[in-house]
């Protein structure tokens, strides 16, 4: 699988994204459960169901662009990114660590890659159970100045060390945590089990918190990175409210097929 992704990474971005769009639409057409999930989540956010096809196109585009994002050279990916790192640089002033929070929105994988091109970054990821996928993701997320740590206590300790050293760390704040690692908080009108880790990291390290969204531009045109400071403590409810605001700016680019409202196994 790793060899295949490296081969696909040679495709022009526009061709890779177009192929992904076709796959996304096909998946939406053939999967009733996927259609129901997307429709239900759009309704929770009070968004029209007519957006569903556009959401499927964007989800497919995200899959199609992954080989390019993961395995093209830093120079090739940087050429496709529009950015201004002023917010990040200001947050790092005085040697402070910075916690960057990026939801499953737009080119969220590209967001982490863009930070690595600007400063070293440590991210958390949950290794897949399949060995081939685990090797693929480890290779994709441990490159140059980007280091990936597992979602366990060793990974959390690694994030704390990085923040205390004045480095940048990244998290997906809308990822459903394991039982005992979150709290129920409102997300588009319904309770969603939400990470408490960002708040704990901020409390223990006094790091700056930055919200990031990597807007996907037209097919083959790349991405635009948007950054803003989060000045209030990143509690689960504050996080969800911040994520809602970001998602509603680019609603079709959120992964509405993600089961954000699931109950973790073992949670009472």
Q: Could you characterize the architecture of this molecule?
A:
By secondary structure, this protein is an alpha/beta fold. It has a domain at 74-253. The protein is 47% helix and 18% strand. The chain is built from eleven helices and nine strands. The strands form two sheets. The chain has a seven-stranded mixed beta sheet with strand order 1-9-8-2-5-3-4, sandwiched between helices. It has a two-stranded antiparallel ribbon with strand order 6-7. Helix 8 (131-141) links the parallel strand 3 and strand 4 (146-150). Helix 9 (153-164) packs parallel to helix 10 (197-205). The longest helix has 20 residues, at 52-71. The termini are far apart.
Features:
268 residues, alpha/beta, two-stranded antiparallel ribbon, globular
């Amino acid at each position: 699988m790793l060899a295949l992704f490296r081969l696909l990474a040679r495709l022009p971005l526009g061709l890779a994204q177009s192929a992904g769009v076709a796959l996304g639409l096909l998946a939406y057409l053939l999967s009733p459960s996927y259609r129901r999930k997307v429709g239900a989540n759009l309704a929770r956010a009070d968004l029209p169901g007519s957006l569903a096809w556009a959401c499927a196109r964007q989800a497919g585009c995200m899959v199609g662009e992954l080989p390019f994002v993961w395995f093209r050279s830093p120079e090739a990916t940087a050429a496709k990114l529009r950015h201004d790192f002023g917010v990040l640089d200001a947050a790092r002033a005085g040697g402070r660590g910075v916690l960057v929070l990026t939801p499953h929105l737009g080119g969220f994988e590209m967001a982490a890659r863009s930070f690595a091109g600007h400063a070293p970054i440590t991210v958390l990821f949950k290794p897949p159970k399949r060995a081939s996928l685990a090797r693929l993701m480890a290779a994709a997320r441990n490159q140059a100045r980007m280091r990936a740590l597992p979602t366990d206590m060793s990974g959390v300790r690694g994030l704390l060390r990085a923040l205390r050293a004045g480095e940048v760390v990244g998290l997906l704040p809308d990822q459903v945590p394991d039982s005992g690692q979150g709290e129920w908080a409102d997300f588009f009108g319904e309770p969603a089990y939400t990470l408490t880790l960002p708040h704990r990291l901020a409390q223990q390290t006094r790091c700056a918190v930055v919200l990031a969204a990597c807007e996907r531009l037209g097919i083959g045109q790349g991405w635009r990175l948007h950054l803003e400071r989060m000045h209030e403590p990143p509690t689960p409810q504050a996080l969800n409210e911040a994520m809602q605001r970001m998602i509603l700016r680019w609603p079709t680019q959120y992964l509405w097929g993600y089961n954000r409202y699931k109950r973790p196994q073992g949670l009472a």
